[in-house]
C-alpha cells in the first residue's frame, strides 16, 4: 500500500497482449478431442483477469480491491456449495448474507457453466469502471470461456446452468450494495475533510492535489464480513508522540531513519517485493490471492477446496482492511517522513513513496497476518512455498518456510521502505491474527 500512481500504460499494454496469448488457455489448442471444461479452471481464469484489472481500475486502492475479492470469493463459493453435498452455505454466517437461490430439484446442471456465468457477471460489475482495454478483456474472456464450456453440454443444460450462475451473482451483488463500500467517489479521496491539528497527526506527504485529503476515511465504518464489527480487534495506542530524544516515539523514528541510511541489498529487495503499489501491482490483498493461486495450480487443488480457500482469503483481507482503517482513523498518527523531516533530517527520503493515509497500524502487516492465519489453517503450519507474484514486474521469486514467515516478511518490509514505525508493524500483525481467527471460525464443511 505504498505508491498511488494512477494510470500505467505499460500494464494496459500487457493486458492487451494477454488477450491474444495462451495465458488464459486451460486446454491445448490442438487437442485431438476437446476435454470438458473444469470449473476450477474457469475459477482461476477469472481470478487471473481480476488481478490484472486491479492494476488499472482507477478506484482500486487496496481496501477497495479487498472488497472485490471478498465478493468474488463468496460468489464462487456459493455457486459451488449450492450443488455440493460436502459444503454448506455461508448465508447466516457472513453478516447480512441471506440464503442464495436454490437449484431446481431433479434438474441437471453443469458446474463449469455455473461458475462461468457467475464470475462473468460478478467481474463485469466489480470492474465496471475499468478502462476500455479492461472492458475488452472482460468481454473477450467471457466469450472464450463460454464457448469452451458449451462444448459437450446440451443447450438446455447450458441455458439452465448459466441462468443459475447469474442468479447467484445477482444475489451476492444485491447483498454488497449496502455495505458502505459500494460507491467510491474521487478515487476514495474526500472532497471535504478537516485534518486534525497537532504535530502527532497525519498531514499530506506529497504535493498531489487529490491526496491532500486522506484515502477512504470512512472505510472503517463498512459492514464487516466474518468479524463481529470493525473494532472487534482493538489495538493499544501507539507510543505517545514526543520529540524528546529519550522518548519511545523518537527512538522508533530514529530506527526508521537509521535503517534507511544503512539498507542492505536484501532489505531493499524485501521492501520492493512487498511494495504492492496501487495501480502498479495486484495490491496487497491481490498479492496474497496470487500466492494462494500459485499453490492451488501447483498442487492441482480440487474445486471445493479452491473456492473455500478463495472465499476465506477474500473475507479475511476485506475484514482486515476494515479493522485496520478503523484503527488508522482512530489514532490518525503522523507518518515517519513527516516526523523525520521535522525533527531529525529535513532532507530525508524513504525508499518507498508514503501512501496518503494515517500510519498506525500497518495495513500490510494487518492483512498479511490475517491472510497467513487463514492459509495456515487450510494448508498447515509449516507449509513451505515459492512466491513468484512479482515475476511480470521483474522481481525475483522468494521462498518462505511458512505463511507466518511471509507475513512477518511483509510486515518488516514497511520498516525497510521507510513508511512505518515498528509499533505499527508489530501491532498490525497482532491485529491481523485476531481478525484471522474470525474467518477461520466459519463453517464450510457439512
Shape: elongated
Regions with little confidence, pLDDT below 50 for 5+ residues: 1-14, 16-32
**CATH level-3 fold name of the largest domain:** Vanadium-containing Chloroperoxidase, domain 2
Give the rounded overall mean pLDDT: 93
Count of strand segments: 2
Count of DSSP H/I helices = 14
Strand neighbour order, sheet with most strands: 1-2
**Major sheet: size, sense and barrel closure?**
2 strands, antiparallel
User: How do the helices and strands follow one another from N- to C-terminus?
Assistant: HHHHHHHHHHHHEEHH
| CATH class group of the largest domain | Mainly Alpha
Radius of gyration (CA) equals 22 Å
Helix content: 40-55%
Domain count, please report it: 2
CATH architectural group of the largest domain: Orthogonal Bundle
Output the structural class: mainly alpha
Termini distance? 37 Å
The percent range for strand residues is under 5%
Structural commentary:
The protein is mainly alpha-helical. It has two domains: 9-176, Vanadium-containing Chloroperoxidase, domain 2 (Orthogonal Bundle), CATH 1.10.606; 193-440, Vanadium-containing Chloroperoxidase, domain 2, CATH 1.10.606.20. The protein is 52% helix and 1% strand. The protein has 14 helices and two strands. A two-stranded antiparallel ribbon has the order 1-2. α3 runs parallel beside α9 and α4 (111-126) packs parallel to α6 (155-176). The longest helix is centred in the last third of the chain and has 29 residues, at 303-331. It is elongated, with a radius of gyration of 22 Å. Mean pLDDT is 93; it is low at 1-14 and 16-32.
Amino acid at each position: 500500500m505504498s505508491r498511488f500512481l494512477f494510470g500505467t500504460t505499460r500494464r494496459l499494454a500487457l493486458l492487451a497482449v494477454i488477450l491474444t496469448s495462451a495465458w488464459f488457455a486451460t486446454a491445448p489448442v490442438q487437442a485431438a478431442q476437446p476435454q470438458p471444461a473444469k470449473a476450477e479452471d474457469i475459477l482461476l481464469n477469472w481470478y487471473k483477469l481480476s488481478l490484472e484489472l486491479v492494476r488499472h481500475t482507477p478506484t482500486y486502492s487496496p481496501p477497495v480491491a479487498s472488497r472485490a475479492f471478498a465478493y468474488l470469493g463468496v460468489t464462487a463459493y456459493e455457486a459451488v456449495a449450492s450443488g455440493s453435498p460436502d459444503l454448506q452455505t455461508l448465508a447466516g454466517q457472513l453478516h447480512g448474507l441471506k440464503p442464495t437461490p436454490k437449484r431446481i430439484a431433479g434438474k441437471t446442471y453443469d458446474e463449469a457453466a455455473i461458475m462461468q456465468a457467475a464470475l462473468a457477471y460478478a467481474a463485469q460489475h466489480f470492474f465496471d469502471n475499468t478502462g476500455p482495454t479492461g472492458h475488452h478483456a472482460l468481454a473477450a474472456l467471457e466469450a472464450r470461456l463460454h464457448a469452451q464450456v458449451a462444448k459437450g453440454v446440451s443447450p438446455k443444460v447450458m441455458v439452465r446452468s448459466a441462468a443459475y450462475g447469474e442468479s447467484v451473482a445477482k444475489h451476492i451483488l444485491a447483498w454488497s450494495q449496502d455495505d458502505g463500500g459500494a460507491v467510491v467517489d474521487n478515487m476514495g479521496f474526500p472532497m471535504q475533510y478537516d485534518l486534525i491539528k497537532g504535530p502527532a497527526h497525519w498531514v499530506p506527504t506529497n504535493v498531489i492535489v487529490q491526496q491532500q485529503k486522506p484515502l477512504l476515511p470512512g472505510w472503517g465504518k463498512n459492514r464487516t464480513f466474518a468479524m463481529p464489527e470493525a473494532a472487534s480487534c482493538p489495538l493499544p495506542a501507539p507510543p505517545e508522540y514526543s520529540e524528546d530524544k529519550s522518548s519511545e516515539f523518537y527512538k522508533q523514528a530514529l530506527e526508521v531513519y537509521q535503517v534507511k541510511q544503512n539498507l542492505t541489498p536484501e532489505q531493499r529487495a524485501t521492501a520492493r517485493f512487498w511494495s504492492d503499489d496501487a495501480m502498479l501491482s495486484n495490491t496487497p490483498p491481490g498479492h496474497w490471492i496470487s500466492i494462494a493461486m500459485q499453490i492451488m495450480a501447483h498442487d492441482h487443488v480440487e474445486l471445493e477446496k479452491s473456492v473455500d480457500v478463495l472465499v476465506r482469503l477474500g473475507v479475511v483481507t476485506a475484514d482486515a482492511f476494515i479493522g485496520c482503517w478503523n484503527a488508522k482513523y482512530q489514532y490518525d498518527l503522523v507518518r515517519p517522513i513527516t516526523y523525520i523531516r521535522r525533527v531529525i533530517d529535513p532532507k530525508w527520503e524513504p525508499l518507498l513513496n508514503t501512501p496518503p493515509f494515517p500510519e498506525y497500524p500497518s495495513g500490510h502487516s494487518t492483512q498479511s497476518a490475517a491472510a497467513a492465519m487463514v492459509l495456515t489453517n487450510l494448508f498447515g503450519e509449516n507449509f513451505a512455498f515459492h512466491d513468484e507474484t512479482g515475476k511480470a514486474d521483474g522481481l525475483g521469486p522468494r521462498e518462505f518456510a511458512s505463511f507466518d514467515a511471509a507475513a512477518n516478511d511483509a510486515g518488516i518490509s514497511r520498516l525497510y521502505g521507510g513508511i512505518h514505525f515498528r509499533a505499527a508493524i508489530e501491532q498490525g500483525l497482532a491485529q491481523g491474527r485476531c481478525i484471522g481467527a474470525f474467518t477461520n471460525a466459519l463453517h464450510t464443511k457439512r
